[in-house]
Amino acid sequence: MKDQGGRNKMAQDSIFAGRLKKHEQELKEKYRELYQAEEGYEKLLSIMKDFYRKRSEELKTLDKKREANPLWYRESSMLGMTMYPKLFAGGLKGLIKKLDYLSEQKITYLHLMPLLKMPYPYNDGGYAVEDFRCVDPRIGTNRDLTILTGELRKRGISLCLDMVMNHTADTHEWAMRAKAGEQEYIDRYQCYDTFDIPAEFEKTMPQVFPTTAPGNFTWCEEMKKHVLTTFYPYQWDLNYKNPVVFNEMMANILFLANMGVEVLRIDAVPYIWKELGTSCRNLPQVHTIVRMMRMILEVVCPAVILKGEVVMAPRELPPYFGTPDKPECHILYGSSTMVNLWAALASRDARLLKHQMDVIHSLPDNCYFVNYLRCHDDIGWGLDEDQERILSIDPLSHKEYLYHFFEGVFPGSFARGELYNYDPVSKDARSCGTTASLCGVEKGGFENDKEQVEAGIRRILLMHAACMSLEGFLMLSSGDEIGQVNDYSYKENPDIAADSRYLHRSSFNWENAGLRTCEGTVQYKVWEGLKELEKVRRENVCFGTAAQVTTWDTCAMPVFAIRRTVQTDELVCLANFSENWQHAKLPTLFGEYEDIFTKEKVDLQQVTLAPYQYRWCARI
Ligand code: GLC
Known about the structure:
Blueprint: H1 4-35, H2 38-54, H3 57-68, E1 80-83, H4 85-89, H5 92-97, H6 99-104, E2 109-112, E3 116-117, E4 131-135, H7 142-154, E5 158-164, E6 167-169, H8 173-179, H9 183-186, E7 191-192, H10 196-204, E8 217-220, E9 225-228, E10 235-237, H11 243-258, E11 263-267, H12 284-300, E12 305-308, E13 331-333, H13 335-347, H14 351-361, E14 369-372, E15 379-380, H15 385-390, H16 395-407, E16 418-423, E17 428-432, H17 435-438, H18 441-446, H19 450-469, E18 473-477, H20 510-514, H21 522-539, E19 548-551, E20 559-566, E21 569-576, E22 582-584, E23 593-595, E24 601-602, E25 607-609, E26 614-619
Parallel strand pairs: 1-2, 1-18, 2-5, 5-11, 11-12, 12-13, 13-14, 14-18
Antiparallel strand pairs: 3-4, 6-10, 7-9, 8-9, 15-17, 16-17, 19-20, 20-21, 21-26, 22-25, 23-24, 23-26
């Protein structure tokens, strides 16, 4: 007779085998599509099995729970926050001590910005990874990370970490060995002896950082070769045509999963496959890889989900979800939605935002987006140009208006921000700044103008209310909950002075956070305002997964309307993106409505909104 341990092991192995059976044929086919390498596939299977065996019982229990409730991340109780652990609390140890602050806000999902070992001083905010299996010593240790994930799980907070897929730091062991001339490692990157092939690539490959890192190749003196570096010169693009790279990167992903990471943000994923004569973005092979990742996770650690960072035109997004039968990512960043929210605020015009949401609502059910206002990156003004033309808006002129507005130089602008990667040839530029600064709190404070500050607070809450009214996963940016403003000190640090994204990557101000309980302060007003919105979002049935969500015409350009219904329950969320009073008319058919914040009765046939007012109106 087998002992208990032996029986458990057999039961576990049969769980793995059962999951693998479901995917094996497709996984094998997909692998062959890219690699035709039998040996590589067998190696991948042994990696998967190995990580499955090493996965803790606690995580395996979570796997089962999530398999029974695969849409857990869509529940309205989910509330995300993104932050740099170092800036928030000095590192992982500090963060562990500050978890009560997150629980106070009922955060259920925490995206920690890159914390794996990175080179100094140049690391692109941690997106140049030196070791995918080791926490950066300046941020913490692997032990801290394991303790943190355990603590977070106890509080019902899922940890999200970045998986930087496209590149490694040029100080990663593979790059070092490539520089030392080891062919096996040279083959893990895309290296060329002459500039002939790079020149061909340059003809069709756009640039990601045209100002801060022009060109897509970097000369490596040690190797005497040109290396493909889509992002910064010290970020070497991996060669996914090499099955060893794919297998090793999958092993790295599974390593993080076994440390308790529940959401993998797959960084810059559209860029991972390159072909001459193409833009080297969104190629079909990228989808083959993401689909394989999804299957690998479903076999080894189904609790873990994929969040794709796909900052691309809206039409490029749906393929990243795959199909209901063959899914890829679980969620994607809603970067276009975010851009449209900011454009609506500057232009006092919600029409493009409405169109964007109509496009999102027309997508199949498997498409689900992260809604957010700010993250660690810039705001890239990728609006829907065709739709702009339909509305007689000149795309380039509108873009110039937007980035100058948020730079604070357009007459009448309330914003304080900076340009990012201004390209004098194409006139393209993006914008940086915190929510509070872009909304006017900084300018008002600086000018000691109470009224401006109040208007800034109203804009912060309006932007959050509009963002929260949308269908999708809500993610806040740490510091926004207390109206934290820009930090200009990065300009004094020559290593990062050229990268204006550091304007909104500053240390969390704990002193100001203390003011959240002092009535009358900016911090109090923002904190309480967000709390009120979040509570409704958590508790109102119209925010549940069953809700039907549509936009509505308002007959007023600056007024945006979202209608949420669940059977007979209905909530109409209105947002006035202008500094003027607005009178809107909604095509409501029946019923009376009540503004759940002011408790006023509202006639949606003729509804008045104060400057920057948002009303969430429930049918009574
Ligand atoms: C992603 C990150 C960005 C980084 C880039 C390169 O876009 O969000 O911050 O610069 O990837 O890794």
